[in-house]
Amino acid sequence: MKRMMLFASLCVIGVALAPIASASAAEKGGCKIEGNATFGGPLAKTKAPNSFTFAGAGECVGEVSGKVAAKATAEGKGELGCATAEATGSGTLTIASGPEAGTHTFALKLTGALGIVALELTGGIEAHGVATFLTSLNSKECALAEPSSLPFTAVAAGTI
What we know:
By secondary structure, this protein is mainly beta. The chain has one helix spanning 136-144, and strands at 20-21, 26-27, 29-39, 48-62, 66-80, 84-95, 102-113, 116-122, 126-132, 149-159. It has one domain (20-159).
């Protein structure tokens, strides 16, 4: 059975580019997902125990499927802050149409510094990517307040 290759998002990430894999050969692709990250508690300037959920939508491009709509979700916990972050979790990438249509699951590891988050997806999806959380507007929010949510854009490439 063929599977669409993922980004990762998302993720947090948000955003993702996803490759496609089949029973006989791997196909490559990726996704870009934009959405919102919500935190279990306000996000402090320095990292502290916290949880996150991400939800977003965008599109994936695969060698066979071409461009298709996609949605991604993820949740997890770790040491999160505006300046740095380290966390693990799990998520799903749902491809709307094409041979890879359906929901694909993954484990997520993220490591971030100053609003740029490296994403590693494993399990049903093998992908690497990056998510950005801090724009010039919400970097000020992180510096002056403790936000409970932030917008994100994530892109990634890999295989399902």
